[in-house]
Amino acid sequence: MATDGTAGGALAGKVALVTGGSRGIGAAAARALAAEGAAVAISYTASAARADAVVAELTKAGARAAAYRADQADRRQVADLVASVAADFGRLDILVNNAGVSVNGAVDDGDAADDLAAFDRQLAVNVGGVASAVRAAAAVLGEGGRIITVGSTLAARAGFPGVADYAATKAAIVGYSKGAARDLAPRGITVNVVQPGSVATDMNPPQGAFADAQRAANPMGRFGRPEEIAAGITFLAGPTASFITGAVLDIDGGYLA
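and the corresponding structure tokens:
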């Protein structure tokens, strides 16, 4: 499902892929990139209906858009996803690694400690999926290509109990992205990480005891909006960010201040 559009903007003529783009930060990033003129492909794992709704919204606004099903834990599916987008759209300029999963539990909790399948899945999606996408994108991105990965401020400060496994995966992609930035810089491709703080999404609803704890730890006293994270992603994807690579942009309401 793809439609040609003629939107203008700083990203006119560019093609972006946003993994996990059917909801939350991913959907907000897809909208923001399209608003700047990019053609946008999104990937999803479970809900085709949600993905189709985002595509329909982007298409109605005049953008070219398409959705692809791909499990970020499967390196072959990730490689095929990137190759399909580049083939269908004729190129790939921007990769936004947004897809991720979160399974919380204290390291001394018997059930959580024994649930190695959940731990392995987090590693496979949050780290393996990013690495697979970066490697596949590196084969098709040209001069001026952009890779932006959505991390978490928990990588720098695990300020709550029960987040060790998730924080470890987000810390790993910072190191990976810095290394990839070194590797790809000679080709004019930038690689950066956006680290959101507490953001109101399906994965992190702004209600409940944990939500109250997050607000208390945030100097601004509120959750961020997906659109606020998308603004940072769009900036790093644009032409004015051409000398920024290997960087980590915290969008966290002051959590790490």
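(Above: one complete record from the training split.) Residues 116-138 form the longest helix (23 residues).
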